[in-house]
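Task: sequence in, structure out. Protein: LysR family transcriptional regulator.
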Amino acid sequence: MELRQLRSFVVVAEEMNVGRAAVRLHLTQPSLSRQIAALEHDLGVELFARVKRRFVMTAAGETFLAEARDLLRRADEAVRAAQRTQRGELGTLRLRFVQSATFEALPRLLGAFRRAYPEVVLDLESSTTLRQTEALRDGRIDVGLLRPTAPSGGGKQAGPTTVVRLAPGLSSRVVAEDPLVAVLPAGHRLTRRKRLRLAELADEPFVFYSRPSGPTVHDTIVGFCRAAGFTPRIEQEAADVQTIISLVTAGLGVSLLIGPTPPSNPDAVVYRELSDDLPPWQLSVAWSPDNRSPVLARFLELL
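Result:
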């Protein structure tokens, strides 16, 4: 049994006339009659009969007609789904992101992608840069929103000295350059200032990124503090930005975070720019050029 036989059968059933059905199907009447006869032979049932010179459908034909229409509908849907998948309109995008991307870059990129491809399934999860690069290399994710370089040294004019974190063979594109900002509890004496120098935080207790959750971020920020003349006194550590802000709000210390910062109540916590000549943190989209996913291709086109 072939799909073309089913289509021919349905048209004959709709017309109840082999001649008119043959015209619709652009076939000769003998060719169409042979298709119906072959279908009846394959099924082992009679689909049509002549009763008092009238062309009628048998009970078996009536039952088969409903199923044939359903089979054809599903076959057409399968074809359209395959074509749409090839175009990247269907499928899954496996994306991982660093926490500091969640307040600007991530919603901006995903919002645009969702509007363009609303039926693509988004598999999203927060992950460190190191884990993302390993997953990209192993083919476990399609795209990473990460910080492949860590700024070091001083001076925006000279540009950041970088520590490459991407595995060989991965491609990346910078989508943002973000500053380091100070986080203070509301009412802190330094909130009266619009911009601060790192050295002004030398005597403060700190709430810091925990080193296991992001050793490069942790070590780089500590390095900036030491370059400013002090080693930060870390009183509390946390693995995520929201917890750090909660602890600062509670008065357990000040902090330094990579921007953009999350929205907050200014009566609870205050963000301040730093006047130190610090290089920015690059945020990049990374992927494997060996990944042939059509959905990834659409995401990169949109990017």
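The mean pLDDT is 89.
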